[in-house]
Specification:
12 strands, Creatine Kinase, Chain A, domain 2, alpha+beta, single chain, globular, binds adenosine-5'-diphosphate, binds magnesium ion
Length: about 500
């Protein structure tokens, strides 16, 4: 699966042994096997000699070898006891597979103007030097973390975590990236979680208005299991265990959540067609997305799969970018129901993790942890598919309105494009620094204003007037005049005045 422009498996390990393996690789004398150190000693030393003379020579030889920094090969050992040199392949990353090679960067990679990521902008030579020789217990290095950002220049974040420990071990680069991406400063701020759906304010009146405009609602987030490496840094064994644990959790799902798991490997054409038609099947990673060069697509499609409940309103993706992506979705605009189900799935996974004597990957500071810094905290994206015919006529205006309410619009043909049939995917922009309840509430409130704007545009109100109202958004929700109490004004017979 690897292409020509990727580093061939032999290049990286041969030229640049992994720093954290230094003790091993330095002593792995591929060209100078241990036995050959004997030849460094002058040939006359090898003659059979009287004991005292031999001892004297040995001391001389020892000090000579020590002066070359060789201390562990002193020749009291017989040649046949000398450890075998390690095979060259073992110098490479043990995570390497037939379809993927991890690179080792000895010096800070050269970033070009094509490199857009925060990582490429924030990783200074000093930081690189400071972090380059570190390795997590699961075997993840800085080189591993930045590979996707180095090889896929258009990415915005450009760094991945390979396990839970990556978030602390590489925090000196992770934190600035998080701050740059989210505007949340982990050095000074803490993240809080709140998965209590009953706290949402969503009136019946709002629900009725949403149903007029919203085609479907979806809330998703990443969930990972503590103790297992993340997809970018995992070995096949951990990946398999994660799938096993998640399948146990799916088996224990009750009531509305009950459903079926479809492993990607060996999936029947019929199931594939069914999942594709419903938009449930996740994409096979392309070489241009984050997953590929992060190493998260190794051994594809082994131990990947999709769960959905019978009503197809609860979905879980297994071992794609994260251990699990949980998705709650349904037709229409009942955000409260969708969020309540989302919280149920999250709680069911947390319970399953606990039953396996572990927990979901979560940190007090950063909230839920996963592969990409963009999905930390709540990792939650709550979106509505909403038809906005009028706003669709001026995408820039729609974007400005969304910005005002901390929402992100996604059109059907990429950034700054209009949406087919005026159908937009609009979601919360932030992921961290707000609780789940707060983010979903922000989405509900923002969409309420956006629908009001759409209705004003339909009534013929100008964009300038709407922009002025945005100063005080409550004005957008003020009822039309005919719905307000009116009384006759005795002074101006025949006209009326409005009592607000
Ligand atoms: P994410 O990264 O949050 O999963 P994507 O933009 O990659 O989001 O979209 C994943 C899929 O989910 C796409 O097919 C998208 O059209 C679909 N989707 C997003 N929001 C909704 C929604 N509210 N209703 C139905 N489908 C949605
Ligand atoms: Mg996506």
């Amino acid at each position: 699966m690897a292409t020509e422009n990727e580093v061939t498996p032999v290049e990286a390990p041969a030229e640049t042994p992994a720093p954290a393996e230094t003790p091993k690789t330095e002593a792995a004398p591929a060209e100078i096997p241990a036995a050959s150190t004997e030849t460094e000693v002058a040939p006359e030393d090898v003659k059979v000699e009287e004991e005292p003379a031999k001892e004297k020579k040995m001391t001389k030889r020892k000090s000579l070898m020590q002066s070359f920094g060789i201390t562990n090969l002193f020749s009291t050992s017989k040649p046949e006891e000398t450890p075998e040199p390690e095979p060259i392949e073992e110098k490479g990353d043990i995570k390497n597979t037939e379809d993927f090679t991890y690179e080792v960067y000895e010096t800070l990679p050269e970033f070009t103007p094509e490199h857009k990521s925060l990582m490429s902008k924030l990783l200074t030579p000093e930081l690189f030097e400071q972090l380059k020789d570190l390795k997590t217990e699961k075997g993840y290095t800085l080189s591993n973390a930045i590979q996707t950002g180095v090889k896929t220049p258009h990415l915005g974040v450009g760094i991945t975590a390979g396990d839970e420990e990556s978030w602390t071990m590489f925090k000196d680069i992770m934190y600035p990236v998080i701050k740059g991406w989210h505007g949340f400063d982990p050095e000074t701020q803490d993240h809080k979680s709140d998965l209590d759906a009953s706290k949402l304010n969503f009136s019946d009146e709002q629900a009725a208005v949403f149903d007029k405009y919203v085609k479907s609602t979806r809330i998703r987030a990443a969930r990972n299991v503590s103790g297992y490496a993340l997809p970018a840094g995992t070995l096949a064994e951990d990946r398999a265990k994660v799938q096993e644990l998640l399948c146990q959790a799916f088996d224990a799902f009750e009531g509305e959540l009950k459903g079926k798991y479809y492993p990607l490997e060996g999936m029947s054409e019929e199931d594939k067609k069914f999942l594709l038609e419903n938009g449930f099947l996740f994409q096979i990673p392309k070489q241009t997305n984050l997953l590929w060069h992060a190493g998260a697509a190794r051994d594809w499609p082994k131990n990947r799969g999709i769960f959905h409940n019978d009503a197809k309103t609860a979905l879980c993706w297994v071992n794609e970018e994260d251990h699990c992506r949980i998705i709650s979705m349904q037709n229409g605009g009942n955000v409260k129901e969708v969020f309540a189900r989302f919280c149920q799935i999250s709680a069911a996974l947390a319970k399953a993790a606990e039953e396996n004597n572990t927990q979901l990957m979560v940190s007090e500071k950063l909230g839920f942890l996963g592969t990409c810094p963009s999905n930390l905290g709540t990792g939650l994206r709550g979106s509505v598919m909403i038809v906005l015919e009028k706003l669709n006529e001026d995408v820039i205006f729609l974007e400005a309105v969304c910005e005002k309410f901390d929402l992100q619009p996604r059109g059907s043909a990429g950034e700054h494009s209009a949406a087919e049939g005026g159908k937009w995917d609009i979601s919360n922009k932030q992921r961290i620094g707000y609780t789940e309840v707060e983010l979903v509430q922000k989405m509900i409130d923002g969409i309420t204003y956006i629908i009001a704007i759409e209705e004003k545009l339909k009534e013929g109100v100008s964009k300038e007037d709407i922009t002025a109202m945005l100063e005080n958004p409550e004005d957008l929700l003020a009822k039309p005049e005919e719905e307000k109490d009116v009384v006759s004004d005795p002074q101006t017979e025949g006209s009326c005045c409005v009592i607000v």
